[in-house]
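User: peptidylprolyl isomerase, Marinobacterium weihaiense:
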Amino acid sequence: MIKPLLAALTLSMSPLLAHAETPDAAAAIVSLNTTLGSIELTLNPAQAPASVENFLQYVESNHYDGVIFHRVIPGFMIQGGGFTPEMQQLETGTPVQNESDNGLSNRRGTIAMARTRDPDSATAQFFINTSDNRRLDGMPGRPGYTVFGEVTEGMDVVDAINRVQTTRKGRHRDVPVDPVIIESARVITPAPAAE
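Assistant: Predicted structure for peptidylprolyl isomerase:
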């Protein structure tokens, strides 16, 4: 299978997108309760409507309950949303259209959709940037990785996950030795209804 976030460290994308304003209070807030603590995410439906709707559908269907952060690269990102602790990949729905031209940048603390080389292949997997990774932003003629929110509480938990020891499991690299499990993902504040 193709890795959802292929060779991201080697991308040569230029940092064309500046950090957009923080999402307003009406944006959806999701809590990821992990084995290392809770992470609160504020999503941005105004600038990434398709990605937010997609992510919330997985949250509300309990897809993320019991999955792991299966790819952890120190100083880069933590990725989750697709595998069980036994490294079994979960089934997903229809891919979401890429929205990396939305003005949001892959800076530290943002959450973005993981995908294959196909820009419109993102489904359930996501990653949280632990550094400013603006090379992952889109540029004219070359889509990037869609940012759809940011960590508003629990960045210390994200950093703790980013420091765990990793290993190779089968064809997967950068897998935590001791699984970091998302015990539950819940919507705290819903996104405003579309007009």
